[in-house]
Write a structure and sequence with these properties.
Length: about 140
Amino acid sequence: MWIMILVGYTTMCKCCCISSLMAYLLPLLIRIYRQQHNQGIPGLLKKLKRSKVRMADLQDEDANKQCSICFEDYAEGDEIVTLPCDTRHAFHRTCIESWLKQKDTCPLCKMQVTKETLQAQREGRSVQPSPSNAAEAAPAEERLL
């Protein structure tokens, strides 16, 4: 009888320990995977084209006067980031950095932001949108997220 109680108790402990261990380790492993998977994001965020809003920009009728992420009007001196897909796709620096940490696309046209598109922007070349299946085939480290 005592042997059966002892065997039952050890089986129960194994079950509880394994489930407790999994409940602790699984979120930890997921966090580690996400950190390793997103290593290229900080490097790409540093390469985004930044500028300050000038009074002349605010008076131009054709210019964007509002961030499309937070919907706040630009003020003189605000730091904005222009994405490589279109020169009119400009956002507050903090808004677009938060956005790109979650998604790797432009909030307006949904074009992926990759090393290649940022390189083309720096070189002054126009960036052509790629088909959606080509975006899926791109290696994960080349995409933002």
